[in-house]
Structures are given as C-alpha cells and as structure tokens.
Amino acid sequence: MDWLTDNYVNILRGFGETLRLLGVSGALALVVGTLVALARVSPVPILRGVGAFYVTIFRNTPLLVLILIAYYGLPEIGIDFGFFINISLAMGTYTAAFVAEAIRSGFNGVPLGQAEAARAIGMPFTQSMRHIVLPQAFRLVVPPMASVYIALTKNTSLAATFGIAEATFRMRGLFNDYASQMIQIFLGISLGYILIVAVISWVASAFERRWAVA
Amino acid sequence: MSSTVLYDAPGPKAQARHRLFGILTIIGVIAVLALIVWKLWAEDQLTAEKWEVFYTPRFISLLAEGMLQTLWIAVLSIAGALVFGLVFGTAKLSDHAPVRWVAWVVVEFFRAVPLLLLIIFIWFYAFETQLGTIAPLVIGLILYNGSVLAETFRAGINAVPRGQVEAAYAIGLRKSAVMRIVQLPQAIKIMTPAIISQCVVALKDTSLGYYILAPGLTTIGRDIWRTFDNRLATALVLALLYIVLNLLLTALGRWAEKHITGARPAQSLQKNPGVAEKP
C-alpha cells in the first residue's frame, strides 16, 4: 500500500482537479443545456431548428473529438483561454446537449392538463413556461440529470489525454512507479470515482425527496 | 392544428412577433458563422495546404481505412456487450442469491468506473502479454457497455407483464423456457430504443482508443495533423465523419425499430417526446 501512503497528497490533488473540471463544465452545461431545451420547445420554428441542430451535432460527436477541436483547433484561430478552460468548454458544450434532452424529457413528464390550464387562463408561452411547466419539469428532471452529471464525472477522465493532472492522469503516473501494485492502484482510484458518483446520486435522491409532490 | 399544448396557434400579432424572433435568430446564426469564417480566414486556416489532404485520394482511402477499423471495433464491442449484458442482466434476476450478488457487484463496478480509466488499466496490465492495442479497447468497451446493457435487459425483462410469466409457468414451461420463449422476445421489443442509443455511445467511445493509439479514425487523424500541421481542419473533418456515422446508425436503428417491433404511439406534451440519454 506504499503507493497510497507516499502519494495521497497527489492523488487528492488529482481528484481536486477532477472536481474542478466537473464544476466548471457542469455549470456551463446547465446554462447552455437549459437554453437549448427552451429553444427546442419554443413557438418560433427557427429557434426550434437551431436547438435541434445543436443537439444533433454535439450529441453525435465523440467528446474526444470535441476536445481535440477545443484544445488543438481553437488556439490556432486565436481562441485560447488556457487549456483548462478550453477543455472545459468542450466538455460543457457536449454535456449541454444531454442536459437539453433530459430537460425536454422533463417537459414531457408534466401532465398535459397543467399546460392546458395555463393556456386556458390566458398565459402566453413565456409565462406558462416560467410559472407552470419549468418548475415542475425541473423536479421531474432530477433523476435523468443525475445520470448526465454522473456521466460527466466519468468523462472528465478524458482530460488526462491532454495533460491535465486529474485522477486518471495520476493513476497512469502511479502505474509507472508501482508496476507491481497495479490492481490495487486501479481499484483505489476507481473507488475515488465511485465516491463522487455516490455523492451525486445521494444529493439527487435528497432533492427528489424534498421536491416530491404530496 | 398545432402539435403542442405549450402555446396556442399564433394569431396575426404573435405570427409577426415569431417572424421577428425568427429573423433575429437567422441574423444571429449568420453573424456567428461569418465570425467563424472570418476568424478562419484571418488566421490562415482556409488555405489549400490545410485542407488539400482531404481531397487527395491517397488520404481519403486512409481515412476510409480508419473508418472501417472504427466500425470493426464498434461491431466487435457491441456484439460482445450484448452477450455480456444478456448474461449479467439475466444473472441479476437469478433465483440464486449469490449469482445475483456477483452480477450486481460486476455490473455496478463497471458502470461507475470511467471507461478511459478501465482501458488504460487493461492496456498497462496486459502490456507484457503482447495483447496489442485493439484488445484492451474492445475489452473495455465490452465491460462498460455490457454493464449498461445488463441494466437495460434487467429493466426490459421486468417490464414484461407479470401475467405473461405466470401463464407460461401455468402451461408447464420450465424457468429457462419461460425466459427464452416468453420474457426475452417481449423484453427485446421494449428495449430496442435503449439498445440503439447504447450502440451510438459505443461507436463514439471507440475514439478513446486515441489514448493508447489503437487503430481507428482519431488515430489516423493524429497521423494526418502531425504530418500536415492542420489540427483544426483535421479535427473538424473527424467530427463530421463521426456525426455521419452516428446519424446513419441512428437511422438504421429507427428503421429496425419500425420494421421489427412496430411503432407505439404515446401521448405527451409534444409530438416527438425526447428520450433521455446518457452522454
């Protein structure tokens, strides 16, 4: 177990970096994803088209290729916020497509009568969205959103390919130094990821219980 | 008639407003596109030397080769994952508690671990065995996607109405026959959309082979930009190729769903309800 006792500071730093990636790209994904979901159900046909186009493009491109574009490509045309932000940009815009789909599935879970009632009392699209549909949709959306964010947690490992010293990157370093204890190291780092995933599921189920209707 | 209950059929005023928003959106999109083109042009990205690779026959055939390798790895992984998923999905429903526990631990573990972490581990661990790079990638993809599919299979089998199983037992079928003849055929019908979206996930994840330089589109792309110093152009072409592959796969899946299982109409706020997927 000397790999752990000698390196726990670096491993914790690695998971810190994983969490930082998760936080930055997760926040970006939430904002962009909500906007895209709203565009997709709006009454303006062209906005709907743009939303659908966004989801199609970003959902069908591998995250790795998006990071290649953001990490190698964007600096070539002068868009360079530093590699951490550029990678987070790729992860955020990729995850936004899935956030948008999760929220849209939440719209569909809101009972028909709610939207009909909102229309019947004369609410326009923006009001019925803001007061009736969105608050209920967000509640329904907690479980699928949790799985989107769990997937994002795991996807942050791709940053290791581009030299960000997060948990997976640290594991590879440890493999070089402690070749005989590979299985232990793998299980140990896995446990770290499993803990993050467990916290996300726990928070999600807490929210679900808190926001449960009746 | 409008297909949604979220808003009324627009009147003349609303139509004018929607037109205005539509025009603003178009202007916005055109502005963004123009900005991109201008940036590309200003930074000398639109030159022939950056792009000529992609209309040179020799490199087109190289990319086609990479695409075939990617497809081959995807097919191997999906086939393996379906078998893995079937075995562990039914094991999770076993009557024998130890079998259930083992299946639960295996499935939950491989679902929770990042795929790249898994691939790197297999690659390092098997380094001395001269396994190459394709095998670690395929094994990783099978373990991960298989575990996701195991959950799908379990949910699908559980979604088959209870009466079907009871009726099957009542006419004297044994446990394995109930599963094989009654539960699985109906479960597969329920699960088809989930299986198709998992196939797209597996196809996208073949790109992770880049880390261990397994053959495939992304690795070919790496060779190209290292030779021609055109990273942005290459990455954009790769994205386009993957998008086309995935859309074809999705279309194939839709076709199969329609012709094999038959469409099921569903009532919802919108005409085409979205299916929540995992990235």
UniProtKB/TrEMBL annotation, chain A:
The membrane-topology field of this record reads:
Multi-pass membrane protein
One GO molecular function term of this record is: transmembrane transporter activity
Q: Does the keyword Membrane apply?
A: yes
| InterPro entries registered for this protein in UniProt | AA_ABC_transptr_permease_3TM, ArtM/GltK/GlnP/TcyL/YhdX-like, MetI-like, MetI-like_sf
Provide the ABC transmembrane type-1 domain boundaries: 15-204
Q: Where is the signal peptide?
A: none
Task: Tell me which GO cellular component terms the UniProt record holds.
Answer: ATP-binding cassette (ABC) transporter complex
UniProt subcellular location: Cell membrane
Q: Which UniProt keywords apply?
A: Amino-acid transport, Cell membrane, Membrane, Transmembrane, Transmembrane helix, Transport
Its predominant location is: membrane
**Which sequence ranges are marked TM in the entry?**
21-39, 51-74, 81-103, 182-204
- Taken from the record, one Pfam family name reads BPD_transp_1
Look up keyword NAD and say if it applies. Answer: no
Q: Name one GO biological process term.
A: amino acid transport
Q: Tell me its family.
A: Belongs to the binding-protein-dependent transport system permease family. HisMQ subfamily.
Note the NCBIfam families from the entry: HEQRo_perm_3TM
Q: What is this protein called?
A: Amino acid ABC transporter permease
The organism is Aeromicrobium camelliae
UniProtKB/TrEMBL annotation, chain B:
Where mainly located?
A: membrane
Q: Which UniProt keywords apply?
A: Cell membrane, Membrane, Transmembrane, Transmembrane helix, Transport
Q: Which GO terms describe its molecular function?
A: transmembrane transporter activity
Q: Which residue ranges does the record assign to the ABC transmembrane type-1 domain?
A: 67-253
Per the record, membrane topology reads: Multi-pass membrane protein
List, in alphabetical order, the GO biological process terms annotated in this UniProt record: amino acid transport
Q: Which CDD domains match?
A: TM_PBP2 (cd06261)
Gene Ontology CC annotation, any one: ATP-binding cassette (ABC) transporter complex
Segments spanning the bilayer are 20-41, 71-89, 101-125, 131-150, 232-252
Q: Where in the cell is it found?
A: Cell membrane
Xref: PANTHER family = AMINO ACID ABC TRANSPORTER PERMEASE, MEMBRANE COMPONENT OF AMINO ACID ABC TRANSPORTER
Q: Which family does it belong to?
A: Belongs to the binding-protein-dependent transport system permease family.
Q: What is this protein called?
A: Amino acid ABC transporter permease
Q: Which organism is it from?
A: Aeromicrobium camelliae
